[in-house]
Specification:
Elements (H helix, E strand, L loop, with lengths): L2 H13 L9 H10 L12 H7 L7 H21 L10 H20 L26 H23 L7 H31 L10 E6 L6 E7 L3 E8 L11 E4 L5 H7 L2 H9 L3 E8 L2 E8 L9 E11 L4 E11 L3
């Protein structure tokens, strides 16, 4: 998920009760909820390094416990140096719980989207994804803003007129409960979308692999990707519609095996990409200088879009030696 959602989730957890148990609970939660994304610095080297390392060890169970310990120790150290103030004392066990909830919430939120996480690194590099939430969801953010901001405004107004203000915990609980409800709604819709996609033929071929991926805001609209023996089919699915599938899907034919394709897919860059991609669709183009092989993960392709997401391009010379390999988060739509 985006870091604003991670931060607001941390604030909601704190205001649900932890901020009344120890000093620096909110600070600890916010730091811990965002710390796993420190691996984003790998993107400064190259997009391929980002793809290889992002949501890596810092998003694993081993990494989560390590980050928890670091954040906990840092807050305790800074808390000792802070000027004492009347009120709540600094309680280590509650700070440890806050740090663990912060890092744990990060891993859980990232698991909900199609990008996924690798929770068992360094022992296993397998990706896991729930596929129910977009990386950025305006609806979820709106629910958080509503739950956290409205009680604060009501509290200010009540204090001005001399009445007891609304408790912040009510808004925090609203945020966490509605997030869980949204997950539940999306999970049911996702299962229905997968069943719809899996229950038909595509150009007289049975599905070999099926995926349904979320779009922003509407939990009942999905992008379906179906792999058959000869092609990939991408379409929109509305799980509330009586006719949830369009008459025609966008079809991407699989390329025939060739020396250029095999050579490109055996490069180190392609191994990294194929370890991540779930629906890799390849194209091979030949010119007088050699071959350009592009591979796109159709999880990140939307029907009718003029661009495709998450694409690797490998250029080979006539001798099938690699000239360059570049990864793009967004690439032009193939003609």
């Amino acid at each position: 998920m985006d870091n604003l959602t991670h931060t607001l989730t941390a604030v909601a957890i704190s205001q649900a009760g932890l901020n009344r148990k120890t000093r620096f609970a909110t600070v600890t939660l916010i730091l811990a909820a965002n710390a796993p994304d420190i691996d984003i610095v790998t993107g400064f080297k190259s997009g391929l390094c980002y793809l290889h390392d992002h949501r890596g060890i810092t998003h694993s169970l081993v990494g989560i416990f390590g980050i928890t310990a670091v954040v906990w120790g840092l807050v305790i150290l800074l808390g000792r140096k802070a000027r004492p103030k009347p009120g709540l004392p600094l309680r280590r066990r509650w700070l440890l719980l806050a740090a663990l909830l912060g890092t744990g919430s990060h891993l859980l939120l990232d698991f909900t989207n199609a990008y996924g996480v690798r929770p068992f690194l360094p022992f296993s590099g397998r990706w896991y994804a729930w596929d129910i939430m977009p990386i950025f969801d305006p609806l979820l953010l709106a629910l958080f803003v509503l739950g956290l901001a409205v009680p604060w405004v009501l509290r200010m107004v009540s204090e001005e007129v001399g009445e007891r203000g609304a408790r912040k915990v009510n808004g925090a609980v609203f945020c966490l409960v509605t997030m869980a409800l949204l997950w539940g709604i999306r999970d049911v819709a996702h299962r229905r979308a997968v069943n719809i996609l899996d229950g038909r033929l595509y150009s007289d071929e049975l599905p070999q692999s099926v995926g349904a991926f979320p779009v922003m805001v509407n939990p009942f609209n999905w992008v379906g990707v179906v792999e058959t023996e000869s092609a990939f089919h991408v379409m929109r699915v509305n799980t509330l519609s009586a006719n949830p599938l369009p008459e025609e899907a966008e079809t991407f034919q699989k390329p025939q095996s060739s020396p250029a394709l095999r050579a490109a897919l055996e490069t180190p860059a392609a191994r990294i990409f194929l370890d991540f991609a779930r629906f890799p669709w390849a194209q091979v183009e030949e010119d007088e200088d050699g071959y350009e092989v592009s591979v796109s993960d159709l999880r990140f392709f939307h029907p009718g879009a003029q661009v495709r997401g998450f694409t690797l391009e490998v250029n080979l010379n006539k001798a099938l030696r690699t000239q360059s390999a570049k990864f793009f988060f967004v690439a032009p739509r193939p003609k």
